Amino acid sequence: MARRKRNTNENPFVKYTLILLVFIIFFLLLFLPLAMIFTTALRDGAKVYLDAITDSDALSAIRLTLTATVAAVALNTLFGLAAAWAVTKFRFRGKNLLTALIDLPFSVSPVIAGLIFILLFGSSGLFGGFLQSHAIRIVFAVPGIVLATIFVTFPFVARELIPLMQEQGSDEEEAARLLGASTFKTFMKITLPNIKLGLFYGIVLCSARAIGEFGAVSVVSGHIRGMTNTMPLHIEILYNEYRFTAAFAVSTLLALTAIVTLIAKRLIENRQGGAE
Protein backbone atom coordinates (compact mmCIF):
# COMPACT_ATOMS: atom_id res chain seq x y z
CA MET A 1 0.00 0.00 0.00
CA ALA A 2 2.84 2.38 0.85
CA ARG A 3 4.52 1.58 -2.42
CA ARG A 4 1.30 2.24 -4.35
CA LYS A 5 0.90 5.54 -2.52
CA ARG A 6 4.41 6.66 -3.46
CA ASN A 7 3.73 5.85 -7.10
CA THR A 8 0.46 7.80 -6.99
CA ASN A 9 2.15 10.85 -5.48
CA GLU A 10 4.81 11.08 -8.18
CA ASN A 11 4.96 14.41 -9.94
CA PRO A 12 3.74 13.73 -13.54
CA PHE A 13 5.78 16.65 -14.89
CA VAL A 14 9.04 15.29 -13.47
CA LYS A 15 8.20 11.76 -14.57
CA TYR A 16 7.42 12.57 -18.21
CA THR A 17 10.24 15.12 -18.45
CA LEU A 18 12.78 12.51 -17.44
CA ILE A 19 11.27 9.94 -19.84
CA LEU A 20 11.36 12.48 -22.67
CA LEU A 21 14.96 13.40 -21.83
CA VAL A 22 16.00 9.76 -21.96
CA PHE A 23 14.36 9.26 -25.36
CA ILE A 24 15.97 12.43 -26.73
CA ILE A 25 19.42 11.29 -25.60
CA PHE A 26 18.76 7.82 -27.03
CA PHE A 27 17.69 9.33 -30.36
CA LEU A 28 20.66 11.70 -30.63
CA LEU A 29 23.42 9.41 -29.40
CA LEU A 30 22.28 5.96 -30.52
CA PHE A 31 19.46 5.83 -33.04
CA LEU A 32 20.49 8.79 -35.25
CA PRO A 33 24.14 7.69 -35.70
CA LEU A 34 23.00 4.13 -36.36
CA ALA A 35 20.50 5.31 -38.95
CA MET A 36 23.18 7.47 -40.61
CA ILE A 37 25.50 4.47 -40.92
CA PHE A 38 22.95 2.41 -42.82
CA THR A 39 21.71 5.38 -44.87
CA THR A 40 25.20 6.31 -46.02
CA ALA A 41 26.11 2.69 -46.72
CA LEU A 42 23.09 2.21 -49.00
CA ARG A 43 22.89 5.63 -50.62
CA ASP A 44 24.65 4.47 -53.82
CA GLY A 45 22.58 1.33 -54.19
CA ALA A 46 22.69 -2.30 -53.17
CA LYS A 47 25.34 -3.22 -55.76
CA VAL A 48 27.87 -0.72 -54.39
CA TYR A 49 27.09 -1.93 -50.88
CA LEU A 50 27.61 -5.59 -51.79
CA ASP A 51 30.80 -4.79 -53.70
CA ALA A 52 32.18 -3.02 -50.62
CA ILE A 53 31.54 -5.89 -48.21
CA THR A 54 32.64 -8.60 -50.68
CA ASP A 55 35.87 -6.87 -51.71
CA SER A 56 38.93 -9.08 -51.21
CA ASP A 57 40.42 -6.76 -48.57
CA ALA A 58 37.08 -6.57 -46.75
CA LEU A 59 36.71 -10.36 -46.77
CA SER A 60 40.27 -10.71 -45.46
CA ALA A 61 39.48 -8.25 -42.65
CA ILE A 62 36.29 -10.15 -41.79
CA ARG A 63 38.13 -13.49 -41.68
CA LEU A 64 40.89 -12.09 -39.50
CA THR A 65 38.38 -10.47 -37.14
CA LEU A 66 36.47 -13.74 -36.78
CA THR A 67 39.72 -15.70 -36.28
CA ALA A 68 40.90 -13.38 -33.50
CA THR A 69 37.43 -13.36 -31.92
CA VAL A 70 37.08 -17.16 -31.89
CA ALA A 71 40.57 -17.58 -30.43
CA ALA A 72 39.97 -14.91 -27.77
CA VAL A 73 36.57 -16.27 -26.77
CA ALA A 74 37.81 -19.87 -26.56
CA LEU A 75 40.89 -19.08 -24.46
CA ASN A 76 39.15 -16.49 -22.29
CA THR A 77 36.29 -18.89 -21.59
CA LEU A 78 38.76 -21.48 -20.32
CA PHE A 79 40.64 -18.84 -18.34
CA GLY A 80 37.43 -17.37 -16.94
CA LEU A 81 36.18 -20.76 -15.76
CA ALA A 82 39.53 -21.62 -14.19
CA ALA A 83 39.93 -18.22 -12.53
CA ALA A 84 36.37 -18.15 -11.21
CA TRP A 85 36.68 -21.70 -9.85
CA ALA A 86 40.02 -20.90 -8.16
CA VAL A 87 38.84 -17.62 -6.62
CA THR A 88 35.46 -18.87 -5.38
CA LYS A 89 36.19 -22.48 -4.39
CA PHE A 90 39.68 -22.36 -2.85
CA ARG A 91 41.58 -20.42 -0.23
CA PHE A 92 45.16 -19.56 -1.14
CA ARG A 93 47.71 -16.82 -0.77
CA GLY A 94 47.58 -14.27 -3.54
CA LYS A 95 43.83 -14.55 -4.16
CA ASN A 96 43.36 -10.77 -3.87
CA LEU A 97 46.32 -10.22 -6.20
CA LEU A 98 44.82 -12.61 -8.76
CA THR A 99 41.48 -10.80 -8.56
CA ALA A 100 43.22 -7.45 -9.10
CA LEU A 101 45.22 -8.77 -12.06
CA ILE A 102 42.06 -9.99 -13.75
CA ASP A 103 40.90 -6.36 -13.88
CA LEU A 104 44.23 -5.13 -15.28
CA PRO A 105 43.07 -4.78 -18.93
CA PHE A 106 40.23 -2.54 -17.74
CA SER A 107 42.73 -0.05 -16.32
CA VAL A 108 45.35 -0.20 -19.09
CA SER A 109 44.77 1.69 -22.32
CA PRO A 110 44.51 -0.68 -25.32
CA VAL A 111 47.19 1.38 -27.07
CA ILE A 112 49.55 0.82 -24.13
CA ALA A 113 48.75 -2.89 -24.30
CA GLY A 114 49.74 -2.91 -27.97
CA LEU A 115 52.99 -1.11 -27.18
CA ILE A 116 53.75 -3.74 -24.52
CA PHE A 117 53.55 -6.46 -27.16
CA ILE A 118 55.85 -4.40 -29.42
CA LEU A 119 58.38 -4.12 -26.59
CA LEU A 120 58.18 -7.84 -25.94
CA PHE A 121 57.96 -9.36 -29.42
CA GLY A 122 59.11 -6.62 -31.80
CA SER A 123 62.40 -6.82 -33.69
CA SER A 124 64.09 -4.75 -30.96
CA GLY A 125 62.00 -6.19 -28.16
CA LEU A 126 62.89 -8.46 -25.27
CA PHE A 127 62.27 -11.66 -27.25
CA GLY A 128 62.82 -10.12 -30.68
CA GLY A 129 66.23 -11.67 -31.30
CA PHE A 130 65.08 -15.16 -30.40
CA LEU A 131 61.96 -14.88 -32.55
CA GLN A 132 63.90 -13.58 -35.56
CA SER A 133 66.51 -16.33 -35.29
CA HIS A 134 63.71 -18.92 -35.41
CA ALA A 135 61.72 -17.11 -38.14
CA ILE A 136 58.74 -16.55 -35.83
CA ARG A 137 56.62 -13.45 -36.40
CA ILE A 138 54.38 -12.16 -33.64
CA VAL A 139 53.88 -8.43 -34.18
CA PHE A 140 52.75 -7.18 -37.59
CA ALA A 141 51.26 -10.64 -38.10
CA VAL A 142 48.18 -12.63 -37.13
CA PRO A 143 49.60 -13.99 -33.80
CA GLY A 144 50.13 -10.46 -32.50
CA ILE A 145 46.55 -9.50 -33.34
CA VAL A 146 45.24 -12.60 -31.59
CA LEU A 147 47.38 -11.92 -28.50
CA ALA A 148 46.27 -8.28 -28.34
CA THR A 149 42.62 -9.29 -28.67
CA ILE A 150 42.97 -11.91 -25.95
CA PHE A 151 44.60 -9.41 -23.59
CA VAL A 152 41.91 -6.73 -23.88
CA THR A 153 39.04 -9.22 -23.54
CA PHE A 154 40.16 -11.77 -20.96
CA PRO A 155 38.42 -10.19 -17.90
CA PHE A 156 34.90 -10.42 -19.32
CA VAL A 157 34.09 -14.08 -18.71
CA ALA A 158 35.83 -14.22 -15.33
CA ARG A 159 34.17 -11.02 -14.16
CA GLU A 160 30.72 -12.40 -14.97
CA LEU A 161 31.34 -15.75 -13.26
CA ILE A 162 33.13 -14.76 -10.05
CA PRO A 163 30.25 -12.79 -8.41
CA LEU A 164 27.73 -15.40 -9.60
CA MET A 165 29.69 -18.32 -8.15
CA GLN A 166 30.36 -16.42 -4.91
CA GLU A 167 26.63 -15.81 -4.50
CA GLN A 168 25.77 -19.46 -5.13
CA GLY A 169 28.32 -20.75 -2.63
CA SER A 170 29.85 -24.23 -2.65
CA ASP A 171 27.35 -26.28 -0.61
CA GLU A 172 26.11 -28.29 -3.59
CA GLU A 173 29.64 -29.09 -4.80
CA GLU A 174 30.70 -30.19 -1.31
CA ALA A 175 27.63 -32.43 -1.02
CA ALA A 176 28.41 -34.00 -4.38
CA ARG A 177 32.01 -34.71 -3.37
CA LEU A 178 30.85 -36.27 -0.10
CA LEU A 179 28.64 -38.60 -2.15
CA GLY A 180 31.67 -39.69 -4.18
CA ALA A 181 31.41 -37.54 -7.31
CA SER A 182 34.67 -36.62 -9.02
CA THR A 183 35.70 -33.00 -9.52
CA PHE A 184 34.96 -33.20 -13.25
CA LYS A 185 31.54 -34.75 -12.71
CA THR A 186 30.72 -32.21 -10.01
CA PHE A 187 31.61 -29.40 -12.38
CA MET A 188 29.61 -30.80 -15.31
CA LYS A 189 26.52 -31.82 -13.34
CA ILE A 190 26.26 -29.07 -10.72
CA THR A 191 28.52 -26.07 -11.30
CA LEU A 192 28.10 -25.64 -15.05
CA PRO A 193 24.27 -25.79 -15.09
CA ASN A 194 24.17 -23.16 -12.33
CA ILE A 195 26.46 -20.73 -14.16
CA LYS A 196 25.51 -21.36 -17.80
CA LEU A 197 23.56 -18.11 -18.24
CA GLY A 198 26.35 -16.04 -16.69
CA LEU A 199 28.90 -17.90 -18.80
CA PHE A 200 26.97 -17.21 -21.99
CA TYR A 201 26.59 -13.57 -20.97
CA GLY A 202 30.35 -13.26 -20.51
CA ILE A 203 30.98 -14.94 -23.88
CA VAL A 204 28.61 -12.49 -25.60
CA LEU A 205 30.38 -9.47 -24.06
CA CYS A 206 33.81 -10.94 -24.84
CA SER A 207 32.81 -11.53 -28.47
CA ALA A 208 31.47 -8.00 -28.92
CA ARG A 209 34.62 -6.47 -27.43
CA ALA A 210 36.89 -8.64 -29.55
CA ILE A 211 35.09 -7.81 -32.81
CA GLY A 212 35.23 -4.07 -32.18
CA GLU A 213 38.76 -3.85 -30.75
CA PHE A 214 40.82 -1.09 -32.37
CA GLY A 215 43.57 0.40 -30.17
CA ALA A 216 45.75 -2.58 -29.27
CA VAL A 217 45.22 -4.27 -32.63
CA SER A 218 46.10 -1.06 -34.49
CA VAL A 219 49.51 -0.92 -32.79
CA VAL A 220 50.53 -4.54 -33.44
CA SER A 221 48.96 -5.03 -36.88
CA GLY A 222 51.21 -2.90 -39.08
CA HIS A 223 48.14 -2.08 -41.22
CA ILE A 224 49.14 -4.51 -43.96
CA ARG A 225 46.23 -4.41 -46.38
CA GLY A 226 44.66 -7.81 -46.97
CA MET A 227 46.82 -9.46 -44.29
CA THR A 228 46.73 -7.83 -40.85
CA ASN A 229 43.75 -5.46 -41.05
CA THR A 230 40.74 -6.32 -38.94
CA MET A 231 37.33 -4.83 -39.70
CA PRO A 232 37.81 -1.65 -37.60
CA LEU A 233 41.22 -1.06 -39.18
CA HIS A 234 39.85 -1.66 -42.67
CA ILE A 235 37.09 0.86 -42.00
CA GLU A 236 39.67 3.43 -40.89
CA ILE A 237 41.69 2.94 -44.10
CA LEU A 238 38.60 3.29 -46.29
CA TYR A 239 37.52 6.43 -44.47
CA ASN A 240 40.99 8.01 -44.74
CA GLU A 241 40.91 7.30 -48.47
CA TYR A 242 37.58 9.19 -48.71
CA ARG A 243 35.75 6.01 -49.71
CA PHE A 244 32.92 6.88 -47.38
CA THR A 245 30.26 4.59 -48.83
CA ALA A 246 32.56 1.55 -48.58
CA ALA A 247 33.63 2.52 -45.07
CA PHE A 248 30.05 2.80 -43.87
CA ALA A 249 29.11 -0.40 -45.69
CA VAL A 250 31.66 -2.37 -43.67
CA SER A 251 30.60 -0.42 -40.57
CA THR A 252 27.09 -1.83 -40.94
CA LEU A 253 28.52 -5.28 -40.22
CA LEU A 254 29.89 -4.04 -36.90
CA ALA A 255 26.61 -2.25 -36.19
CA LEU A 256 24.65 -5.44 -36.85
CA THR A 257 27.01 -7.28 -34.51
CA ALA A 258 26.28 -4.70 -31.80
CA ILE A 259 22.53 -5.10 -32.34
CA VAL A 260 22.74 -8.89 -32.13
CA THR A 261 24.84 -8.56 -28.97
CA LEU A 262 22.26 -6.25 -27.43
CA ILE A 263 19.44 -8.67 -28.24
CA ALA A 264 21.39 -11.63 -26.84
CA LYS A 265 22.20 -9.62 -23.70
CA ARG A 266 18.53 -8.77 -23.22
CA LEU A 267 17.43 -12.36 -23.72
CA ILE A 268 19.93 -13.59 -21.13
CA GLU A 269 18.78 -10.96 -18.64
CA ASN A 270 15.17 -12.04 -19.19
CA ARG A 271 16.14 -15.67 -18.65
CA GLN A 272 17.99 -14.78 -15.47
CA GLY A 273 15.01 -12.76 -14.24
CA GLY A 274 12.69 -15.67 -14.99
CA ALA A 275 14.96 -18.12 -13.23
CA GLU A 276 14.92 -15.95 -10.12
Describe this structure in words.
- The two termini are 24 Å apart.
- α4 (56-89) packs parallel to α10.
- The relative contact order is 0.13.
- This protein has helices spanning 2-8, 12-42, 46-53, 56-89, 95-102, 104-107, 110-121, 128-133, 142-153, 155-168, 171-178, 183-212, 215-221, 231-240, 244-275.
- The protein is 81% helix and 0% strand.
- With 276 residues, it is mostly helical.
Shape: globular
Give the % helix.
over 70%
Q: What is the N-to-C succession of helices and strands?
A: HHHHHHHHHHHHHHH
Strand content: under 5%
**CA gyration radius, whole angstroms:** 23 Å
What is the β-strand count?
Answer: 0
Mean pLDDT: 87
Alpha-beta content class: mainly alpha
Distance between the termini: 24 Å
Largest sheet: none
Contiguous low-pLDDT stretches (5 residues minimum) are none
The helix count comes to 15
Précis, in short:
With 276 residues, the protein is an all-alpha fold. It has helices at 2-8, 12-42, 46-53, 56-89, 95-102, 104-107, 110-121, 128-133, 142-153, 155-168, 171-178, 183-212, 215-221, 231-240, 244-275. The protein has 15 helices and no strands.
